[in-house]
Amino acid sequence: MLNIKKTKLHLATAVIIGGLMGASSMSFAQTLKLSHNGDTKSPVHKALKFFADEVKEKTDGDLKVRVYPNGQLGTQRESLELLQSGALDMAKSNASELESFDPGYGAFNIPYIFRDREHFYRALESEDIGQKILRSSEKYGFVGVAYFDAGSRNFYTTKPVRTPADLKGMKIRVQPSPSAIKMMELMGASPTPLPFGELYTALQQRVVDGAENNIGAVTTYRHGEVAKYYTEDEHAMIPDVLVISASTWEGLSDDNKAAVIAAGKDATAFMKTLWAEYTVEELKKAEKMGVEVLQADKDAFIKAVAPMHEAAAENPAISSYVKAIKALDK
C-alpha cells in the first residue's frame, strides 16, 4: 500500500464519520462518498450526479451517493489509495491511473488500439474485455462499476506539433502511467508526470511545454489560455472509470449491488450522448480562446508507437485483452 497524505486521510475520514453520524440520527439510509477531480461544469460531474440520482431511485432511497468534485478529498491517486484502505467509498479515475494498481487496465492505454469511437464502445461493453477488467480488480482493493467516455486524447502545446519530430526536446505532462510514459518516449518527447491540478501553472511557467488530454482540458480547465496549439492526433481513447472500495462493495446488499451496476450502465449511456455534444461545443470555444487547431500526420505517430503494440502482444497481463480488442475491429 502506498503512503497516504495524513491531511487527506483525516479529511476523508472526518467527512465519512460526519456523514455516518448524520445518517444514524435521521434514517437507516446508507450514504456513499464519491470523489473526483473534475469541475462542477464538466460532463463527468454531470454524469456522476446522474449516477447518484439513479442509485437513489433504484434503491428507493435506501442507498445514496454524495459527489465531491474538484479533488476535495484528494488527488485522483490519493483517492484510489483511500479507496484501497476503506477510508473512501467511491472514486472516478481513469484507465491510465488504474494501470498502476491493476495492470489489466493497461490494455486501454496502448496508443491507437481503437480505430474509432464505436470500436472503443464495443470493447468497453464486451463481457470478455471491458466488463471482465471491471470485475478483475477486487483483489487490489476496489471494484469497477462503469466506464465513462473521456474523448480522444490529443496534444496541446506552446508551439505547433504536427509530427513526432516536432515533439523532440519538449517536456510533455503525462499521467503516472507506464504506458503513457513509454508512448511519449517513443514519440520523441520528454514525459513529465504531474498532478492535473498543477498543470495550468506548470504550462504558464514553462515547467512543461505541453500536455495531452481531451478538448475539455483546453476549455473547461482553461489550459488554452497558456497553450495555444491543439493537435488532433487522437493517439488514445482512455476511458474514465468509476470504482468502489472492495470493503464498501462487500457491505452492500445484493439488491443494492445490482442497483449500483444498473445505475452505472445508465450513466455510461448518458455520458456517451453528453460527451458527443460537449466535444463539438468545446472545439468552438477553443477557437474563440485563440487556440489553433492543427491536423497531425497520424500515420507518423502510429509508426512511432508500433513497438508498444508488439510489446503488448507479449505481455501476459494484457495480451489476451489486446488481441480481443483488435479482433473486434475485423
Automatic annotation (TrEMBL):
It holds the Pfam family DctP. One of its GO terms (molecular function) is carbohydrate binding. GO terms for cellular component: outer membrane-bounded periplasmic space. Gene3D superfamilies: Bacterial extracellular solute-binding protein, family 7. It comes from the Bacteria. GO terms for biological process: transmembrane transport. The lineage of its organism: Bacteria, Pseudomonadati, Pseudomonadota, Gammaproteobacteria, Oceanospirillales. This is Tripartite ATP-independent transporter DctP family solute receptor. Keywords: Receptor, Signal. SUPFAM superfamilies: Periplasmic binding protein-like II. InterPro entries: DctP_fam, TRAP_DctP, TRAP_DctP_sf. Residues 1-29 form the signal peptide.
